[in-house]
Amino acid sequence: MTVISAKDLDLTFQTNDGPVHALKGVNLDIKQGDFVSFIGPSGCGKTTFLRVMADLEQPTGGQITVNGVSPQAAREARAYGYVFQAAGLYPWRTIGGNIRLPLEIMGVPKAEHAERVARVLELVELAGFENKFPWQLSGGMQQRASIARALSFNADLLLMDEPFGALDEIVRDHLNEQLLHLWERTGKTIAFVTHSIPEAVYLSTKIVVMSPRPGRITDVIESTLPKERPLEIRESPEFLEIAHRVREGLRAGHLDE
Asked: Are residues 250 and 174 part of one domain?
């Protein structure tokens, strides 16, 4: 089943300095259960594309569907969870309170809240932290809580905008491993924005390489890595070969400017 389908997608922002072409002629299909990473230089439209999927930006040309309907209809149907670059947790609410927030907004019966919070905390390996406040957790733990919040209403699609970009490499490696386990256990479809070639290659079933503005897709790489991926796989010839192709795609995008 196709979860996201973009055809000839364009987005032009009108600014005081003239039009800014954020996306141009983007064609892409994401299938159910895919883990798709978007990589490209700053300003290439990666986050804009994610925001179009989420109905936070409106395309100016072409078409896009999420679960076969418009992004607006998908948003109204609570079809996705969104994880931002910063954890965005409310400091005055406990971790459990932050995770319950979407459930409260959506009118989910209160009787279900405790079970849902416990389930998603276990999924992100934060069981026992429900009554802690965000400031009592490390940056990596806060981001895991943010992922738990996005999972709380059980959407099948997870949109993730550089969720680990601000974390140090050791924490990032650990969270990459945890995210793969989470993806395997839940079967969710994940669209993931990153600036890191190793992160994109390690996590993904498909890597979408984008060019500098106007954002175009220069390559779509289907990963040949096995589903089981210990961190050591990053030293394997197969991993390095995929990383080389991503790097070449990024370089080709710059040359095409």
From this structure: yes
Tokens (6 digits) for 52 = 């179009």
DSSP codes of every residue in 216-247: -EEEEEE--S-S---GGGGGSHHHHHHHHHHH
CA atoms within 13 A on the CB side of 61: 13
Domain boundary among 115, 132, 154: 154
Residues 227 and 244 in one domain: yes
| pLDDT confidence band for 57 (50 / 70 / 90) | very high
In the DSSP assignment, the letter for residue 15 is E
- CB count within 10 Å of CB 231 equals 12
**Confidence (pLDDT) at 212:** 86
Angle CA 149–72–39, to nearest 5: 65
Q: What does the pLDDT average to over 87-105?
A: 93
What 3-state DSSP class applies to 72?
Answer: helix
Kindly state the tokens that stand for 177.
Answer: 């491993």
What tokens does 69 get?
Answer: 């309907």
- DSSP per-residue codes, 26-63: EEEEEETT-EEEEE-STTSSHHHHHHHHTTSS--SEEE
pLDDT tens by residue, 206-242: 999 998 878 899 999 999 999 889 999 999 999 999 9
Q: How are beta strands 18-31 and 2-15 bridged, if at all?
A: antiparallel
Q: Are 140 and 210 found together in one domain?
A: no
pTM for the predicted model, two decimal places: 0.91
Q: Which residues contact 174 (CB under 8 A, 6 or more apart)?
A: 140
pLDDT at 94 over 60: yes
